[in-house]
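Troubleshooting entry. The earlier prediction with adenosine-5'-triphosphate gave an output that would not parse, so I re-checked the input for stray whitespace and re-submitted. Clean input:
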Amino acid sequence: MGSATEATKDISENLLGDKKVTVVFVLGGPGSGKGTQCANIVEHYGFTHLSAGDLLRAEIKSGSENGTMIQNMIKEGKIVPSEVTIKLLQTAILENGNDKFLIDGFPRNEENRAAFERVTGIVPEFVLFFDCYEEEMERRLLERNQGRVDDNIETIKKRFKVFVESSLPVVEHYESLGKVKRIDAAKPIPEVFEDIKVIFSSLDSKETA
Ligand SMILES: Nc1ncnc2c1ncn2[C@@H]1O[C@H](COP(=O)(O)OP(=O)(O)OP(=O)(O)O)[C@@H](O)[C@H]1O
Ligand SMILES: O=c1ccn([C@@H]2O[C@H](COP(=O)(O)O)[C@@H](O)[C@H]2O)c(=O)[nH]1
Ligand SMILES: [Mg+2]
């Protein structure tokens, strides 16, 4: 991989072309239920779900030259360099015929956020923030059973620390802009989705108004 400056230049030369998109950032701690609820939102509201973590895991599987670096970062609960994740998101958006996207688990820090806005020109419609306490998130992750290399207690503790130190400031940034819709994600899955429906249904009625 070249320097960050070279990589950013490479992305900005491609941008999103003329494609206009609606983006909702779905943020929350590890195990707060983002992926679970994104599947429900896709089914009911016609969004395409882009999980940054899933895109990075697919990149490892594809045998990419960045695969080993990404694998090591995920195992340590660290944040992969912005240019790598943004390139994957940009490609996924451009390759998809839809114009409404849920971006799940990104931006992970202030640098991710600023680089994404600068490079793609995308400003999120709003941020859907999953609020859940650590004990519950830890229990869910240890029971998830999907064979993820980061679902072990050592990595989970590191992910919580990164979330508090690096990711919550992103939520605070959008809060200062009045863009955060916070939901109580500690409730059972169907109840969380009831709260989400209120938010997305009002979005639908604004579009048809
Ligand atoms: N509200 C809930 N109550 C109980 N269990 C839940 C709830 N939401 C999700 N789960 C379960 O918790 C686990 C983690 O959920 P999910 O993968 O959706 O979280 P996530 O926020 O995407 O996590 P990560 O950030 O690690 O990708 C899954 O096994 C899921 O079935
Ligand atoms: O924007 C991102 C998203 C994810 N990562 C890395 O992947 C893991 C797992 O992410 P999930 O959202 O929980 O699937 C995360 O801990 C980071 O190591 C990233 O670097 N940048
Ligand atoms: Mg997830």
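This one parsed fine. The pocket of magnesium ion (ligand 3) is lined by residues 34-35, 51, 53, 105 (CB under 6 Å).
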